[in-house]
Amino acid sequence: MICVSVAPESRTLARADLVNAAQRCDLIELCLDRLIKQPDVKEMIEGIAKPILISCRRPQDGGHYRGSEEDRQMLLRQAIIAEPAYIELDLDIANSIPRFGKTQRVISYTTLDRPLDKIDDFFEQAYKSKADVVKFTWPTPTLDAAWPLLSAVSKKRELPVVGMGIGNSNLTFSLLGQKYGSPWIYAALEPSMRNYAGQPTVHELDEIHRWRGINGRTQFVAIAGRGVAEQMTCRIFNTAFDQLRLNMRCLPMVFGGPDRVTKMFDILRIGVMMLHPTLGQQLYPIVDEPDAMAETTKSADFLVRRDAKWAGYSLLWKSALRCLEDTLGSEGKDDRPLDRRNVLVIGHHGLARTMVEGIRQRKGLVSVAGTDDKAAQKLAQQCNVRHVQFGNLYDTLADVVVFADPNLRIGNQKTDFHASFLRPSMTVMDVSSMPAESDLSGEARARGCKVVNQAEIYAQHIGSEFRSITGQSLPDEAVAEALADM
């Protein structure tokens, strides 16, 4: 089930919130802590078509109730008399509010700064407090932080468990909770109605992640990052999985580091991970068997687990250079359009190095520049190519300009890129931002440059990833539908 929380301030508007929520979810949480006046809970929930969960949280639990603790508990006792489907109670007050009628008791633990240390002790106390469901809420900025919460949900226990993560891994936890049998997962009706940072909306869960198709046998494909490209990939792949009747889903993740990744993936039975190229170096330490480019650059954007080892591949550069060569080839060159061309790569991280090495393989004459001159010079030395000081960039001649720095911005500051550098004779490609056209590509197009289509690079790249994962071609309609809405 999916649970949507509504937290009205007005008793008059509460009914409208409940009716709207009932159209999009399976369970509604009615939060009483924002109401300005004393509510008549029975009148508020009467006639609502979906089950209701009542809560009233203190500020230290992420709520907004400003009255006395005695008044809050009295409000919860009165709410039970209305016989909602569930009522949420903090463990410290659960024994003072008796069971009433058919209302099930959700015994909760919330902390806004750290995970719960002794989970088993909490279950024992919750059981003694006549819990029907146990709920945990705590910060989940990364998968590492979400791990204790996931363990609580995935482990078979006498009491069912629901959870809500706070932060970037909230979505990760929600999708895994669906797989591992959590009674419900939480979502916001609209972005402005999120209870906590990182909480997904109903639209995101339905349209992008297709959460209702997730079950205990669903195979997850991990996607590192929560940017526009990663969200687009989730939407396209999940649509394609459904079209091809594959019990698979994308699982977006935010990692704190590589230390525990392999162990967590073993437990979750995840065998494939796609990375934004800018993260390729961060998780490279878990790679046991890199391909030639990944080994050279110490960066991989596609990882596959085979026979207890992780193989790492660098794939984006191939799709990018194929599109670049197609663009250059249209100018009447032969089948080696990069041969002997002056190519300037702007960037100094793993993505830039991958592009430098790929262009060198195509016999391009490469120069490197970056906003961090020392890092760019080091990259140039590693790749045995020419280094250009960022301040001297505008005296440099180039046939092709490749942007490979996601933090590069157009402007007039010292570390900004001055658009006056771009000339109509240049061919420009931005591999740091996809699939939508970046400001850098847009500026190049406006100045008459020939621009490599970033959506085409993206489509080729994810097509090769999909084929590697499933052995099938990515359906054209899945890509076209998503890109059309971009």
Task: Report on the architecture of this protein.
The strands form 3 sheets. The chain has an 8-stranded parallel sheet with strand order 7-6-5-4-3-2-1-8. Strands 10-9-11-13-14-12 form a 6-stranded mixed sheet. It has a 6-stranded parallel sheet with strand order 17-16-15-18-19-20, sandwiched between helices. The longest helix has 17 residues, at 454-470. It contains 17 helices and 20 strands. Helix 9 (228-243) runs antiparallel to helix 17 and helix 12 (316-329) packs across helix 16. It is elongated and about 80 Å long. The chain has 486 residues and is α/β, with parallel strands linked by helices. It has helices at residues 11-22, 41-45, 69-81, 91-94, 119-128, 143-154, 170-179, 202-208, 228-243, 261-268, 292-297, 316-329, 350-361, 373-383, 439-446, 454-470, 476-484; strands at residues 2-6, 27-31, 52-55, 86-90, 104-110, 133-139, 161-166, 185-187, 219-224, 248-253, 272-275, 289-290, 302-306, 309-313, 342-346, 365-369, 386-387, 400-403, 427-430, 450-451. The model has no long low-confidence stretch (mean pLDDT 88). Helix 1 links the parallel strand 1 and strand 2.
Percent helix range: 25-40%
Instruction: Kindly report the oligomeric state of this protein.
Output: single chain
Number of helices: 17
Strand content: 15-25%
| Major beta sheet summary | 8 strands, parallel
Structural class: alpha/beta
Radius of gyration: 26 Å
- Got a strand count? 20
Tell me, what's the shape? Answer: elongated
How are the strands of the biggest sheet laid out side by side? Answer: 7-6-5-4-3-2-1-8
Q: Can you tell me the residue ranges where pLDDT is under 50 for at least 5 consecutive residues?
A: none
**Terminal-residue CA separation:** 29 Å
Overall pLDDT level = 88
